[in-house]
Design a protein that fits this description.
Elements: E1 2-7, E2 10-13, E3 22-28, E4 44-50, E5 55-62, E6 67-73, E7 83-86, E8 97-104, E9 107-112, E10 115-121, E11 128-135, E12 147-154, E13 163-168, E14 171-174, E15 184-189, E16 205-210, E17 216-223, E18 228-234, E19 244-247, E20 258-264, E21 268-273, E22 276-282, E23 291-296, E24 308-314
Antiparallel strand pairs: 1-12, 2-11, 3-8, 3-12, 4-5, 4-11, 5-6, 6-7, 8-9, 9-10, 13-24, 14-23, 15-20, 15-24, 16-17, 16-23, 17-18, 18-19, 20-21, 21-22
Keywords: Lectin
GO molecular function, one term: cysteine-type peptidase activity
Pfam families: Gal-bind_lectin
């Protein structure tokens, strides 16, 4: 994950160009909805730019008419036709705001505080190498203040991951070598099914990180009936510990691809869903991760993810 602080009027370079599956989050600590009195109008923008200074994606936020306008232009060109949508409750005075851009093939998905607001088809086929936070030159205020934080998370593995394989539901795959701290495990499903299984044993699909002894170092259980995700751990011969439960409504979209990414840290596992950090699970068993397991309750006939998912390892 890359984290940047961008002062108003500045551009920050990315360590590598954006790639398919990346999510850029512009994170504002506060929001001011009072329009700037500039005679040229109120216009604060979040921008994805190329190395040639093309505006690959320009997100213009206008407090005057409470609209968000999207556009593109080459460095030496003119703006194209605007695409727009209204605030419609997207921003709240004095509250933090998060504007996310997901790279999905030749499209950009724009969401505000987790709510998908617009899908923008790519107009300029150029690598995005920088992020820019700007406002009209004569403005003295901006909707997100004098600076904004930006984070870039890879929801898909790089072209040449250190390990890559597929895993079927019910199977376990060994890792060689074992995971090191700060590595990422990518679980990628080509589809999502939100209809709960009707078996009497309950709907429970899980992604698991195991030790060489068969301990469940991290158990991530997806429960479609309750719209929750349950995190837990247990030794190979012991019982489950205290559950850590988070609501998952809105995390997944029917029939859409999804990525669940786990970052291993010294004392914890960070779990991302489609690039958004959803939970940090403090390690309970201090052993190396040597295998992954994809499973569901024995009497289930369907699960939330595809029958076969892709797994990749990246990082140090």
């Amino acid at each position: 994950m890359t984290t940047l602080t961008i002062p108003i009027g500045d551009t920050r370079s990315l360590p590598s160009p954006l790639r398919d599956g990346d999510i850029v989050s512009f994170i504002a600590s506060t929001t001011s909805l009072k329009p700037d009195p500039s005679p040229n109008g109120d216009n604060t923008s979040l921008n994805l730019v190329s190395g040639d200074d093309d505006y690959v994606l320009h997100i213009s936020i206008r407090r005057g008419d409470q609209s968000v306008r999207l556009n593109s232009r080459h460095a030496d060109g003119v703006w194209g036709a605007e695409e727009s949508f209204k605030f419609d409750g997207s921003f709240t005075e004095g509250r933090p705001s998060v504007v996310t851009v997901t790279v999905r093939g030749s499209k950009y998905l724009i969401a505000i505080d987790g709510r998908l607001r617009h899908t923008y088809a790519q107009r300029i086929n150029a690598p995005v190498t920088g992020l820019r936070y700007a406002r009209n030159g004569d403005m003295t205020t901006a909707i997100f203040g004098n600076s904004i934080k930006a984070q870039v998370v890879h929801t898909l593995p790089p072209p040449n991951p250190s390990q890559s394989f597929t895993i079927n539901i019910g199977d376990t795959r060994a890792l060689s070598p074992a995971l090191a701290n700060d590595q990422f495990v990518y679980f990628i499903s080509s589809t999502t099914s939100l209809t709960p299984d009707t078996s009497t044993g309950g709907d429970n699909t899980s992604l698991n990180l195991l030790s060489i002894d068969g301990d469940y170092l991290l158990h991530v259980s997806f429960r479609r009936v309750s719209n929750t995700i349950v995190f837990n751990a247990r030794t190979a011969t012991g019982g489950w510990g205290a559950e850590e439960v988070i609501p998952s409504k809105g995390f997944f979209q029917e029939s859409q691809p999804v990525s669940v990414v786990v970052q291993t840290k010294t004392q914890a596992f960070d779990v991302y869903i489609d690039g958004v950090l959803r939970h940090t699970f403090k390690k309970r068993i201090n052993k190396a991760v040597t295998a992954v397991r994809y499973q569901r309750n024995n009497n289930m006939s369907t699960q939330i993810f595809a029958n076969t998912i892709n797994v990749a390892i990246d990082g140090q």
